[in-house]
Design brief:
Its EC number is 3.5.3.11. Pathway: Amine and polyamine biosynthesis; putrescine biosynthesis via agmatine pathway; putrescine from agmatine: step 1/1. By secondary structure, the chain is of the alpha/beta class. The protein has 8 helices and 10 strands. Helices cover 32% and strands 18% of the residues. Helix 3 runs parallel beside helix 4 and helix 7 runs parallel beside helix 8. The two termini are 25 Å apart.
Length: 292
């Protein structure tokens, strides 16, 4: 896998052509091999890039322009179709290289299992970090119908890796009874239904700490983001997720990377889901990269 060659397809708007000088690297993880309901998120990274071409390059939220951030779009990791373990190994290897080169990794999914090898790569570099997890689903299962490699398991896996007390979940409104029991008993921090308001209380307690943020697009209500594999009614608005991104940008945490997953464009002919995702990525680039 090459890291320093310009991607031949569509790139995220205003991406710079030089990997070596880039502060942040956008990369795609086009995998949906383990989804439990509707596939299609492997097409998310490409469609988000295409949708970004319609973005304004200036953000009135951050009062910044994308020209102010040096980021490189490396394209998608060429994951082997239908092979979860090999795909996860390739993502971990890829992230290891980005982190060795001191890049801010900004991943596009793909199903949420792709975040698990990212966590593993981060754990090799950082002795201590916190996960902020924004999602409709708890993702705290140990397995799904006997399969331990499932998009319903990455947060349970990272609890075991870095300690449940270092995991903060927001917006959760779906999961098994046992998942919510685990959250209560393990010491992890779960905030149901809302995102921005609990973040306001939590972020000051994380000041100075390394934080990785993983966002599942299905935290949004299906009326705002129908293009996802496992939509859940009762979600937050795009405005609230934008507010959450701003809150993290304005806080004293050290953001060490992020991803946005589970965009499945086939279920959204209106394209509002990839359009919203591309705007969230713009705000992440402007608000979080220089916090590294």
């Amino acid at each position: 896998m090459r890291f320093d060659e310009a991607y031949s397809g569509n790139v995220f708007i205003l991406s710079k052509p030089d990997y070596k000088t880039a502060d942040a690297v956008i990369y795609g993880m086009p995998m949906d091999w383990t989804v439990s309901f509707r596939p299609g998120s492997r097409f998310g990274p490409a469609r988000i890039r295409e949708a970004s071409l319609g973005l304004e390059e200036y953000s009135p939220y951050m009062d910044k322009h994308l020209e102010e951030v040096n980021y490189f779009d490396a394209g998608d990791i060429p994951l082997p179709f239908g092979n979860p373990q090999r795909s996860l190994d390739m993502i971990e290897e890829y992230l290891g290289k980005l982190l060795d080169d001191d890049k801010f990794p900004l991943g596009l999914g793909g199903e949420h299992l792709v975040t698990w090898p990212v966590f593993k790569a981060l754990h090799k570099k950082y002795d201590d970090f916190v996960v902020i997890h924004i999602d409709a689903h708890a993702d705290l299962r140990e397995q799904y119908e006997g399969e331990v490699l499932s998009h319903s398991t990455p947060i349970r896996k990272v609890c075991g890796l870095i300690g449940a007390e270092n995991v903060y979940s927001f917006g959760i409104r779906s999961g098994m009874r046992e998942e919510f029991q685990f959250a209560k008993e393990s010491g992890m921090h779960m905030y149901k239904f809302d995102v921005a308001e609990p973040l306001k209380k939590v972020l000051p307690t994380l000041a100075g700490r390394n934080v990785y943020v993983t966002i599942d697009i299905d935290v949004l209500d299906p009326s705002a983001a129908p293009g996802t594999g496992t939509a859940e009614a009762g979600g937050i608005t795009s405005k609230e997720l934008l507010e959450a991104i701003q809150l993290i940008a304005q806080s004293d945490v050290k953001v060490i990377g992020a991803d946005l997953v589970e965009v499945a464009p086939i279920y959204d002919p209106s394209e509002q889901t990839p359009i919203a995702a591309s705007k969230f990525l713009r705000e992440i680039l402007l608000g979080w990269v220089n916090k590294k």
